[in-house]
UniProtKB/TrEMBL annotation:
This is RNA polymerase sigma-70 region 2 domain-containing protein. Residues 29-99 form the RNA polymerase sigma-70 region domain. It comes from the Bacteria. Belongs to the sigma-70 factor family. ECF subfamily. Pfam families: Sigma70_r2. Coiled coil: none annotated. Keywords: DNA-binding, Sigma factor, Transcription, Transcription regulation.
Amino acid sequence: MPKDSLNHLSQQELISGIRDNDRRIMTLLYQDIFPKVRSYLLQNNGDEDQAKDIFQEAFLVVWQQVKSGDFQPQNSTALQGFLYQISKNKWLDFLRSSRFKKEQSLSVFPIERSDKQETGDQEERLTLLEKAFSQLGENCQELLRKFYFEKISLPELAQNFGWTAQTAKNNKYRCMETLRKIMKP
């Protein structure tokens, strides 16, 4: 049995390896699944550190379920799929969280803050932002104000504007892109 691939291991061998805390099995699972999880997170507003954290949390869930006997494989890739799906669900939960929305709202209009930078630069950037924001159409201004400053969710905004959730998401994206274009010198 090759030591560098999960392809030649049965689900039962994987489960036994996890139950026995077999380092080789856990390493193979990490090498097989983590790149897929990382790729998913990077494509969906995540970064490398977040991918590592999410994967670790998901792996812990799988490890606990296997140890307790609650995990029963349904097919030849059940464990790998389960681990990936838990990672994906944990990331989606984070994206829906108020913590993520707060982080996003703070990073939407980046204002560099360092000891070396003068307050005048920050004020100039804010002035530029206000000017650019005033150049947006009324709907864009209202949408962005409600989403970023009043913290109204996209589904609520969709309902308020009489849009579908996807339309609200697309319109928010278009408005932000327009704002970014206006802000670029």
